[in-house]
Write a structure and sequence with these properties.
alpha/beta; 6 helices; globular
């Protein structure tokens, strides 16, 4: 919400599959809060219900709205769930993220902001974590998908000059 409060005008595109991993009513509440914050800042807000793994839909959104800055907070969360449902994580966290990277690349997006996860530190016992710590040995699938996002974004920066910012959460 802080990001939205900083936005003085513009157009916010929210994209969510609205799956039931988290309580859908909580997601609906948050969407209402986004709408309210956008209106108070004289910004426009559009919600798109869809899956980021749907390349055609992602491409349509980027083409229609001509995005300048993309903030990707999307991911299938949950450590334990990833053990029993690896396909959900590959689809959302890798295929969905590649679709965003490709859309940024082909639509000349100025900046990409995305989040990783402290899970990438795996069994690291040193606290606090540091961005200089080695993160080459994830111990769960979720962490591996988030580390993959970091690597993919780095490659897209080098190959296609897509400026990016990654934040651990």
């Amino acid at each position: 919400m802080r990001l939205l409060r900083e936005l003085s005008s513009g157009h916010i595109i929210s994209f969510d599959s609205m799956n039931d991993y988290y309580d859908v009513s909580l997601k609906e509440y948050r969407l209402a809060e986004i709408e309210k914050t956008a209106k108070s800042n004289k910004a426009k807000q559009t919600f798109i219900k869809g899956n980021l793994a749907d390349k055609e839909l992602v491409d349509e959104v980027f083409t229609e709205y001509r995005l300048d800055i993309v903030v990707n907070l999307a991911a299938q969360a949950g450590v334990r769930y990833s053990i029993e449902h690896p396909d959900v994580y590959i689809e959302s966290n890798i295929i969905g993220f590649v679709n965003i990277l490709e859309a940024c690349r082909h639509n000349l997006v100025e900046h990409l902001v995305y989040v990783s996860s402290s899970s990438v530190y795996g069994g690291n016992r040193k606290v606090p974590f540091s961005t200089d710590d080695k993160v080459d040995n994830p111990v769960i699938l979720y962490a591996a998908t988030k580390k993959s996002n970091e690597l993919l974004a780095h490659v897209y920066l080098k190959l296609y000059n897509i400026p990016k910012v990654c934040r651990m959460v």
